[in-house]
Amino acid sequence: MNLGMILIWFSLVTGIGAVFFEYAEYRKRSNSVTTLSLKLEMSCLALTGLSMLLLMYHLYTVNASYSYVYEHSSTDLEWFYRLAALWAGQEGSLLLWAISILIMLKIVERTDEGRLSGTTLMRVTRLISLSVVCVFLGLLVLKNPFSAYHVLSGGTVDITNWNPFVQMYDVPYGQGMNPLLRNPWMAIHPPMLFLGYAAFTIPFAAAMGNLLTHDKRWESISTNWMRIAWLFLTLGIGLGGFWAYEVLGWGAWFWSWDPVETSSLIPWITATAYLHAQLRYRHGEYGFIAPLLAIVSFLTVVFATFVTRSGMWASVHSWQDFTAESAIIAAFLVILIVSSAILLARRYFEEE
Question: CA–CA separation, 209 vs 203, rounded Å?
Fold first, then answer.
């Protein structure tokens, strides 16, 4: 039985359940904390965490029956490279991203529990953050990190991405990590970026909550997490520069304008602008610009994700050609842009 695949499926089910019950309470304009939604959110966090730990275990022990392990791990790798293989591919990085958002959301709920829990602002923040997580978990169901090799009736070997009950094929070894990734910076640079990307979700959700509720307390949530996002993104970009200097032989520390590299710089710029704008927001200014910058920062993160995973731009960071998963990310980006534009336009004309 493919336990990891089942954990991913149930993570998505509990995440969707948490969104559904949170939205039901939002529609009722209730100020009570939704106990069932919180329990489902916690279940989603636990299931996603277990699936990530299980995948790391398979990568460490090189259980190459799983296609993701076969593609990114091997017995000749050092132990830290085997664990770092979690974020060497698309599926593992999405899993890390999803659980990071869930953990950060739980921290938000705990730190602001006495002041904002049960408010419409916090409800919208949770609703949007959980919806983003569900998109990532949906991508993981379509391209499951626990897809496994199995033997067909004719004796040929195939990869199953949906059936957790077929007998898996015993693959004796993995092909290992891409040679460009076999560098100590591999263990540090990607998780710094993904933690930064994940932290952008909270300011985005809080800013959307402000546009819907006019609750100015969104800034206290947004600013703290924007600082965290900015810090991790700065570390990720800087460490990536060291990595590129050593491995790719760019020959200098200056910017190379690689498409994926540049797409990670854009949210850093908008986040920096937000951190300056919020200083004036507290004095009653930038009521439109501050939420705009928080929203655009997250939109550019999703755009960077699309650039990395679509393969539409030639880059050393790109993982694949345009696929169904890339189309889903593109559709998700369009939905975010349209919904954000509508709410921002309404705020702009209100201020006029």
Answer: 10
